[in-house]
Structure formats: structure tokens, C-alpha cells
Amino acid sequence: MEKEKRHKYFVSRQDTVTIRCTSCGRIGTFSVAGLRGRKHSLRVNCPCSENFAVDLEFRRDFRIKSHIQATFRAVSTPKARARHCIVANQSSGGLLLQISDEVPVKIDDRLIVCYRPREELAEEVERIITVRHYERGAGIGGAFLESPLSTPLGAQTIALH
């Protein structure tokens, strides 16, 4: 059984998305404000009888894969006790830290991450992140304090008109 190809659509700042039918090219614009925080995927039914899946991307900041050596610590922990990690991806809104050990971290904790955003930079930067996701012994997803992060998930069906 062949796996269906999913198309990614980016949600505008007005919480609308414009979707084009993969068969006939018909275009429809829809409000997806009600899906924020709940739905990430949906099925589209076009009048031409085409039925296809799309993924919505609510993220405002696009991620760049990286592999940067870094350290992290709780805000109240001295720099000398920082733990090693790798910045697996980064955006203007946050970071994904790859870790190898379990750490005493929970959602909404604040961490200081010290890293070089680009290899060619001589100076390291320290950024404070708020933990948004923690996968025990594997990764920590964090949003920079000045930028909120949303993580919508789920599925729904809409119809093109």
C-alpha cells in the first residue's frame, strides 16, 4: 500500500490558510483560528472528488538543523555545573537541545543555554529558554523568553468550495 503524500501549508498571521487542490488546482482560503493549539493535520475534500491530506504549520519561526556543542543549566545553577548538550536545531523563537542523560527538568522551567549560534563566531552567547517539551534522556525543546511557542496537534476534515 502506497503512503499518501502530505502537503505542508503555512498559516498566515491572520490565522488563515490557502489550499490548492492537488488534482484540479482549485484554491480555497480558510480560517484555521479554531484549530490553533489542537489541530495540525486535516483532510481536504474538493468538489472535483479529490480527497487529500494537508499538514498545517502554525510556527512563526522556521527551524534550521544544526549540530552545535553547547551547555545548559538551570537559572539558579552555577555555570561550573552546566551540563553538555547539542543544539540539534534552532530558530529565532527557540532551540532543540539533544541530551544523553536524564536531567531534573520539567515544562516551564527556565534554562540558560550557552552556545555559538554559528561556527564562525568567536563568542558564545547565553540565552534563557523556557522548557516547552522534555523527552527524558533525549531532548529538551525550549522557547526563548521573548517569543511564545505553540504546538498544535490533531486532524480534521474541510471541504474546498
Account of the 3D structure:
The protein has 161 residues and is an all-beta fold. The protein has 2 domains: 7-60 and 151-159, no CATH class; 64-144, Thrombin, subunit H, CATH 2.40.10.220. 0% of the residues lie in helices and 48% in strands. It contains no helices and 12 strands. The protein has strands at residues 7-10, 16-20, 27-31, 41-45, 51-57, 64-74, 83-90, 94-98, 110-115, 125-135, 139-144, 155-159. The strands form 3 sheets. The protein has a 6-stranded antiparallel barrel with strand order 6-7-8-11-10-9. Strands 1-5-4-12 form a 4-stranded mixed beta sheet, with no helix packed on it. 17% of the residues are buried. Residues 147-157 have low confidence and may be disordered.
Supply the key terms.
161 residues; 0% helix
Can I get a quick summary?
With 161 residues, the chain is an all-beta fold.
Rg on CA atoms, Å: 20 Å
The major sheet is characterized as: 6 strands, antiparallel, barrel
Helical segment tally? 0
Mean pLDDT: 83
- What is the helical fraction, as a range of percent? under 10%
Strand neighbour order, sheet with most strands: 6-7-8-11-10-9
- State the low-pLDDT regions, or none: 147-157
Query: Structural class, please?
Result: mainly beta
Topology, element by element:
Blueprint: E1 7-10, E2 16-20, E3 27-31, E4 41-45, E5 51-57, E6 64-74, E7 83-90, E8 94-98, E9 110-115, E10 125-135, E11 139-144, E12 155-159
Parallel strand pairs: 1-5, 4-12
Antiparallel strand pairs: 2-3, 4-5, 6-7, 6-9, 7-8, 8-11, 9-10, 10-11
